[in-house]
Design goal:
YaeB-like fold; alpha+beta; 80 residues
């Protein structure tokens, strides 16, 4: 089991994405944000299910593709 640590930049982006979507639909903004956090939650049990960030050589940085968005997540205690 690992701990998922969101960067401040990722959380800021999620806020901005939600604000943008909410201009048309508050409900869809809520769904998108929930999808982000639900997807990241799966990394706690299956950390390598997130893809290593291709442009960074650090196995503890993972990315998830959620809809049209890429979420980069730092993992602690990732065992090889």
């Amino acid at each position: 089991m690992v701990e998922v640590n969101w960067t401040n930049q990722s959380l800021d982006y999620i806020d901005k994405i939600a604000e943008y979507i909410a201009k048309d639909s508050r409900r869809y903004a809520e769904i998108q944000v929930k999808d982000f956090f639900d997807s990241a939650k799966s990394l706690e049990e299956f950390p390598k299910s997130g893809r290593a960030v291709p442009e960074v050589n650090d196995e503890n940085l993972r990315e998830l593709l959620v809809g049209f968005y890429r979420i980069i997540i730092a993992l602690k205690n990732l065992t090889r």
